[in-house]
Protein 1
Amino acid sequence: MVKRATSKFDKDDESAVGEARILSMLSGCPGTPNLYEYFNWRKHNVLVMELLRGDFLSLLEHHPHQKLSRKTVLHFAFHLIHTLEAVHSFGILHRDVKLANVMLPFKQSPTVKLVLGDFGFGYKFESNLKRKGMRLRVPPRVNPIPGTFFDES
């Protein structure tokens, strides 16, 4: 549940509406959460989504002395890349990939090993997906940091 905007500066409401819109576009995309329902209730936007176990950041923080093997890291990296390819094939950029947004599904299946969540900053792009290696210019959300990819100077 996300409280609906009360001013034009309230970004959480805009993020929830955007996430619901993008998740509805990603219906059936492997490695993304299922959105079952989106509605307004009292002064809140409600997204009813698939139940997930937790995110990788919390997992690592709660078990600081246990390290993942190289094989396990490569296994999850492979599945994350596969998920991102699937999301991009639907014409969506995630724009907020981090450990806190990579989650474990409640029920494991042979095809989905992890779920990429939090599409609040997601971006729908129109492009010719047949052109391999095409770069897309995505406007930065905040002022660019000098010397980074988004630096326009």
Protein 2
Amino acid sequence: MARVGAELRRQDFVEATVKVIAEYGVANATTRRIAAAADCPLATLHYVFHTKDELFYAVYESLFNLPHQALEHVAAGSTAADSAAEMLRHLITWFTAHPELAKAQTELFYWTLRNNPEMASKIFAVASEAIERELERAIGSQLDPAFLQSTSRLLIQLVDGLIIAWAAHKDSARLKAETETACQALKLFVANR
């Protein structure tokens, strides 16, 4: 049997953790269950990730990067308001195409908020900074730094709220209509800076 590098195993464990959390919830995401889902020995999981918090943070890092890749496709050069709304649309589209990841991210964040508030704060800060960078890339210097930060935080709050509502009602047509309402609100917020 060929040896698999630690980095590849790391990704296997991250993907398995997402699946386990989406199916069983964070409270039932045991390291045994995660190792089994990754088809790896439990000892390998503990070798690659020394603590469960370390594993969960690696899941967060991967979850940050995936939806933000969708933001690279938001065209730069339109108005700041249009760009912000388009970013919101792209994020919702990405999450609806990956419901398992959306569910795992939400579950994991609330679990972390209860069990490790410092980590939850760090995770929110990293997410805000990533959205801020993408907004800045798409709209350039159209917004001053303080307003750019406010806009990125509002965008995150809208995405989170829409995804949580969609998880509850499971109606894609309703999500699309609610997303357009949120996009209009975001556009008004940015346009009236």
Protein 3
Amino acid sequence: MQGTDTGPSLYGVGELSVEFQLATGRMPLQAQGPQAPQKSPQFTQPQIDAMAAYVQSEAPGPTFPSDEILDGEGDVAHGAELFRVNCAMCHNVSAAGGALTEGKYAPALTSTSALHIYAAMVTGPQNMPVFGDMNLSDDDKRDIISALLFQQESVSVGGFSLGNLGPVSEGLFVWIFGIGGLVAITVWITAKSN
């Protein structure tokens, strides 16, 4: 539990962190790097649950939330506002993720489960800060989870999302296809007139 030169200490991490790291495939770590990438888990869910329970019994820490926090029935508008204020600077306002410094990145939350959203807020994996009860109450966390689950299920009303990366990707799309189309039409008209 105390860790080694190549592995962190597990004292105080609790079952929530263990479940998050193993179920998202971040652990066991394949190679040292700026950030552990998400990949397919190497253990079954019963094995993950057993390891999480063992760590919780030996090194207690954050535990699983009540089902109410994960139910997606919170205040979506308030959750979206809290997400924009606390999370969007890294995860993007549309939860599409984004690049950080030194080869690190904030992962996309477009298909993340409610449990893993909560676990990330409470345990602060890798580059993410811990959002304790002094920062965000359980009701606030429920609202953020509800907003993200709502966003995962909603349909893009504006047509193509273009990766939800904002005006840069949209502007590039217009320049490449819009201006390119105008040039092609101009060449065609010129060729027809000759």
Protein 4
Amino acid sequence: MNRETFSHLRAKLGKTQKALSELLGVSLKAVQSYEQGWRSIPIHVERQLYFLVVNQRSEGQSKRKDCWAVKKCDKKKECPAWEFQAGHLCWFLSGTRCDCTADKNWKEKMDICRTCEVLTSML
């Protein structure tokens, strides 16, 4: 995640830097540093920010689509997203079967998920 995306998502949440730092469990200085590009954004912070945006309540929010429907997945019954009926949170779960992410570490998985239509359609 780059600093522009981070700032955009904070604005989408309607949070001040201080309020977002409290939600993310990081210091105010950390949030300021992410937005200025002085520090790289850790994967766990990126995932948590996506989680907050995806689950934000808003009027007229489009219906979330499950990953197995979007991707026409033939491995869904082997996948934790299917098992826990969390198809809109596949990017948040370990061990998903989509796009060969099962054996990836979080950094590699998020590199794939950042461009996936399941996540991007909700941001």
